[in-house]
Amino acid sequence: MATSKSPDAAPQSPEDEEDDYMSMTIAEPTGPKVKETYTQRRHRLQREAEARAYTKPKAEREADEAAAREDALQRSLLSHPTTQKSKGLAMMSKMGFTPGKALGKGDNADARTEPVGISIKEDRGGIGMDNEKKRRFREEVEKEGKRVKADEGEYRERVRREREEGRLEGLIGTAMRVAERMASEKEEELSTDGGGDVPPKKGAQRSKPLKTVNILWRGLVRKREEAERDRRMRYDLHQSLSRLPTYDDEDEDKDDKKALGKTPIQYALVEDLEEEDPELEEFNALEPAERLQKIVNYLREEYNYCFWCKYTYPDKDMEGCPGLTEEDHD
Ligand SMILES: [Zn+2]
Fold first, then answer.
1. What separation in Å is there between the alpha carbon of 64 and the centre of ligand 1?
2. Coiled coil where (predicted)?
3. What are the pLDDT digits (tens) for 105-138?
4. Is residue 51 located within the same domain as residue 139?
């Protein structure tokens, strides 16, 4: 610690100071120090000892260390004083290496001009952790991007398919109603021609078991009857809740009672509706287009009716109809 170098270390006159400066290369200043009194000397030594003994507070020390480290990291490793003296660098210089330039051929533009830098690790994670984190993050981002794209395509395709299926289901419903109507008209025709049976009243209960209904429109009938059953059950429930079951009016005749829902309604078809119908399930499992085509074909074969032309042809040839499918009628 060269305290004599600083002017306030030992108050001296200007000439003395110059002398002091000149004497710096000499190990121990001589001349001017002679004037020092015993007390002065004691004080000076005390100050010097204090200065030597002074330990910076921990925070200050750490700040100094951090600053030194930062400073070192900012500068090129090659310009560091210890590197300058490095034997390795000297050897490389002899072989043509100049600091600041890349190793190897001069046209190697992407090459490193600096040695691999030092990065201080401050956490307790393993060395590979940061890279692993980055890799995972990149993968997540890539995956997400792909997923979004796939989802978009998938979504459009699904919407398109659902729309087409909905349209076909609508057509199937219409075709089923046409087929049901034509079949019942033919049946009526036959029964009146056949033996003078009383034709079935409009809106009369269907008397046939559900399973004898043609599979092509059985689904339609079943749905309608299920809706009717539910309507009646709601009606019954409503009646039973709004009227005391014991309440009986002498004036109400049998029909009134039935209308009011007091006489339990016999659902002739409820059992039918609760029964399993594997044949119908199988038919419903077919693709909508296939179901539609089956009904369309049935209408042609049975009634010379083209669902697409909406026309009943006079004979089996169906002359004028462009074909079996919807596309044929475009
Ligand atoms: Zn046609």
1. 95
2. none
3. 666 667 777 777 777 777 777 777 777 888 888 8
4. no
